[in-house]
Amino acid sequence: MKTINTIFALSSAYGKAGVSVFRISGPASYDILNKLSNGKKFLPNVVKFTNIYHPKTNVLLDSCMAVFFKGPASYTGEDTVELYTHGSIAVIDSIYEALSNFKDARIAEKGEFTKQAFLNNKLDLTQVEAIADLIDAETESQRKLALSNTNGEASKLYNSWREKLVKILAWCEASIDFSDDEMPKDVVEKNDNDLKKLISEIEKHIETSSSAQLIKQGLKVAIIGKPNVGKSSIFNKIIGENKAIVSNIAGTTRDALDASLDIDGFKVNISDTAGLNEKTSDKIEKKGIKKALDIASKADIKIYMVDGIRSIDEKKIDGDTIVLFNKIDKKQNQNLPKNIIPISVKTGENWNKFWNIFTKKIKSKMQNSCDVTLTQQRYKNALNNCIEFLKIAIKESQIDLKAENLRLASDEIGSITGKIYFNELLDNIFSSFCLGK
Fold first, then answer.
1. Which residues pair with 68 in a beta bridge?
2. Checking DSSP bridges between strand 105-107 and strand 60-69, what pairing results, if any?
3. Is the pLDDT confidence value at 255 over 80?
4. Residue 341 near residue 353 (C-beta atoms within 8 A)
5. Are the beta carbons of 70 and 27 closer than 8 angstroms?
6. Most CB atoms within 10 A, among 25, 304, 381, 387?
């Protein structure tokens, strides 16, 4: 059975839009463009206006812009065509149907264009995964983090570490090949010291993974406090919509309400939790309280709402807690400790003071987090494995066993960029992409 190596797909979102983009990649891509345009010639890298027709019926499908990229100077490294058509569902469907009539082309699988780019050495795996992160980016910090890796920052770092290991491994293998000539002790000592330095570098790098996860997954903020202290009111005010029901009835909120928003370029996940009513006998309310405490324990920042000095529970306050004394529009100003902010969510009094403290806390949590490159859990796993092999190699006196552990350590780093890779790993990575990528 003949293998079809030319693929096509819609690279923009399906639906009504100003412009839709189709991508065709593979050896038959230029011939397909030539037939769609009724024999027009296209120079590489030159965008050209053209009519495109159905290959069988010759019915006009659309008037569009088209460009041909001659491989390897293309995204995939192969001959590639891009069509910039009118963005209507009718046009999209008609072009899909027309392309399906070419026997030497097939619809692309998810991520297949980027997979071809990887296989043709246009990208390594860190860049591939960074592209997926860039597509999913919702905030400025996420965009910057992904973009730094699409430009190869992570690749440079991991490749430099691997090159160091390969050089030391070469010394070990040379010693095995020329066993009659004993390797100088000062060389062995220098190599072990270099490995120790490398372990230290990798360990420091692994420490940045938590910052990367904060950027990608978002900072967790929990609003906690007793019933009817204004938790739902401040939740609605922060997110800018009336998502939570607000009433004077204690226990209105029995389950957590969640929302994600962009604050100063950072993704923040905020939860409005059930009131901490310790005296309740209601089983459902108790479950809500248990969930509230669990959310609070996992939060990066807590907003602890109170409406009276006596209601403050010091056990719920730590360095990551902002304590708000709410409803000061209804109560006389009390002598509050400096760490408690008097506020009226209803009138907005002292709102700016709270907001400045809140955003400052967010930024402090994210400090220097945009400079990290360890963005995937699999990188962390591979680097931890690498460290273990390096530690064994340093202790190992037999040169052949030392070399084997260095080789395993090198392979772990290589698996991050794709110098060493497995089909299962590739399938998992590329399946997360959208169809036309």
1. 44, 81
2. unpaired
3. no
4. yes
5. no
6. 25
Three-state DSSP class for residue 241: coil
Q: Residue 223 corresponds to which tokens in the numbers above?
A: 């609003």
Residue 171 per-residue DSSP state: H
Number of neighbouring beta carbons within 10 Å of residue 278:
9
Whether pLDDT at 63 is above 90? yes
Residue 56 to residues 61, 99, 235, 291: CA-CA distances in angstroms?
A: 12, 11, 59, 62
- Say yes or no to pLDDT of 422 above 90: no
Is 148 buried (19+), middle (13-18) or exposed (0-12) by CB count in 10 A? middle
Q: Are residues 75 and 166 in the same domain?
A: no
Categorize the per-residue pLDDT at 172 as very low, low, confident or very high, splitting at 50, 70 and 90: confident
DSSP state of 170: H
Domain that holds residue 178: 126-208+374-430
State the CATH number of the domain containing residue 322: 3.40.50.300
pLDDT at 77: 95
CB proximity list for 427: less than 8 A, separation 6 or greater: none
- Is pLDDT of 25 > 80? yes
End-to-end CA distance of the chain: 27
CA distance 85 to 203: 50
Let me know the angle formed at the C-alpha of 209 by 268 and 261, rounded to the nearest 5 degrees. 10
- Do residues 222 and 296 both lie within one domain? yes
Beta-bridge partners for 305: 225, 324
Please, where are the H alpha helices in 256-350?
Answer: 283-298
Residues 65 and 135 in one domain: no
Cβ count within 10 A of residue 338:
5
Q: What 3-state DSSP class applies to 83? A: strand
Q: What is the DSSP letter of 370?
A: G
Residues 152 and 271 in one domain: no
Between CA 99 and CA 105 the distance in angstroms is 7
328 and 362 share a domain? yes
Q: Which helix (H) or strand (E) holds 121?
A: none
Question: Tell me: the pLDDT tens digits for 117-166?
Answer: 988 989 888 888 888 888 888 888 888 888 878 888 888 899 999 989 88
**Greatest Cα-to-Cα distance within the chain, rounded to the nearest angstrom:** 90
Q: Are residues 229 and 329 in the same domain?
A: yes
- Nearest Cα to 82, choosing from 22, 17, 20? 22
Task: Identify whether 281 is part of a domain.
Answer: yes
Q: What is the C-alpha to C-alpha distance for residues 38 and 349, in angstroms, rounded to an integer?
A: 69
Does 120 reside within a domain? no
Domain of 57, CATH number, reads: 3.30.1360.120
